[in-house]
């Protein structure tokens, strides 16, 4: 099997990157790897900085991507957000023609960027991302607005400015996260297919 085509999608929290990546998986013969799988165990969740690169085991992510690049299957970690710990079980995946990797900090580590065949940044205004995050965390995760805002101001916003936003200037393709998700999926699908066609003729 030929080396998978790696697409790495970064961007701020609630910017639309996960929706984009999931939509693209449905269109392509692809496997999706979320950086969120690689969070480290947290003994005291309250006040923990989940938005710093050290919160994630990116060494293991890089190792897993290297394994897939060699045409071998790999067991992806499973993180339990209720207990803030990694489970013993893994999700085993086989290499696919396209491997999508997404996460807020996935391009903060240059090793991931070097593995990528296409890097993407989903750009979305801070106020819209905050509204989306409040809605998501309150409705889907049972949190209260004050807690969401406290975390946003304490860690999410400063870590975004320090580690996430600078990635925008280092990617191959910037996408407008305010556009309809289906439009973004259509656009990125066309870009990926064009790159795959060019590679097959190379």
Summarize the topology.
Elements: E1 5-11, H1 17-27, E2 30-34, H2 58-69, E3 74-80, E4 85-93, E5 98-102, H3 110-115, E6 118-123, H4 126-139, H5 145-164, E7 173-176, H6 181-201
Helix pairs in contact: 1-6, 4-5
Describe the overall structure.
Helices cover 42% and strands 21% of the residues. The protein has a single domain, classed as 3-Layer(aba) Sandwich (Rossmann fold). The chain is built from six helices and seven strands, in the order βαβαβββαβααβα. The mean pLDDT is 94. Strand 3 and strand 4 form a beta hairpin. With 202 residues, it is α/β, with parallel strands linked by helices. The radius of gyration is 17 Å and the shape is globular. The strands form two sheets. It has a five-stranded parallel β-sheet. A two-stranded antiparallel ribbon has the order 3-4. Helix 1 packs across helix 6 and helix 4 packs across helix 5.
Annotation, overall tally of beta strands? 7
CATH fold annotation: Rossmann fold
Fraction in helix: 40-55%
Poorly predicted segments = none
Q: Kindly report the spatial arrangement of strands forming the biggest sheet.
A: 2-5-1-6-7
């Amino acid at each position: 099997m030929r080396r998978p085509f790696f697409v790495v999608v970064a961007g701020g929290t609630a910017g639309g990157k996960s929706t984009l990546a999931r939509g693209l998986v449905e269109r392509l013969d692809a496997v999706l790897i979320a950086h969120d799988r690689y969070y480290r165990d947290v003994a005291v969740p309250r006040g923990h900085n989940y938005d710093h690169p050290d919160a994630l085991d990116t060494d293991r992510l890089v190792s897993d991507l290297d394994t897939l690049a060699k045409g071998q299957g790999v067991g992806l970690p499973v993180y339990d957000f209720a207990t803030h710990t990694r489970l013993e079980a893994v999700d085993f995946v086989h290499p696919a023609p396209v491997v999508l990797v997404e996460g807020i900090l996935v391009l903060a580590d240059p090793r991931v960027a070097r593995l990528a065949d296409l890097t993407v940044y989903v750009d979305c205004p801070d106020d819209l991302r905050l509204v989306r995050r409040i809605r998501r965390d309150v409705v889907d995760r049972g949190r209260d607005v004050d807690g969401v805002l406290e975390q946003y101001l304490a860690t999410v916003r400063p870590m975004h400015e320090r580690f996430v936003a600078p990635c925008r200037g280092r990617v191959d393709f910037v996408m407008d996260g305010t556009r309809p998700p289906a439009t973004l999926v259509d656009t990125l699908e066309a870009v990926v297919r064009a790159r795959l066609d060019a590679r097959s003729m190379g």
